[in-house]
Automatic annotation (TrEMBL):
Residues 1-32 form the signal peptide. Transmembrane segments: none annotated. Keywords: Secreted, Signal. The keyword Signal applies. Pfam families: LTP_2. It comes from the Eukaryota. Its main location: secreted. Belongs to the A9/FIL1 family. This is Bifunctional inhibitor/plant lipid transfer protein/seed storage helical domain-containing protein. The lineage of its organism: Eukaryota, Viridiplantae, Streptophyta, Embryophyta, Tracheophyta. It is found in: Secreted. The keyword rRNA-binding does not apply. SUPFAM superfamilies: Bifunctional inhibitor/lipid-transfer protein/seed storage 2S albumin.
Amino acid sequence: MVSLKSLVSLGSHALLVLVVAVAQLQSQTVESQSCPTELTSLNVCAPFVVPGAAVTNPSIDCCNALQSVHHDCLCSTLQIASRLPSQCNIPPLTCA
């Protein structure tokens, strides 16, 4: 059985990998050039987005980081992330 600590560590690493991968896929417009930096600032939110996390309410640092990310940057990131399973030849994710 996988421990909660292992899941949190895995989730944090997965979030970082996702942020880095998405940051590299952004377009070349001036606004999107700041997107990788904005996404990197979301690392402070990692402890709150891992399934089974002990603390589920985001910190003020997480909320501030999320607020500082431009809407287009966040939406583009989520769209890119949603395409990753098919691009990696794995079944699509279905979330309840």
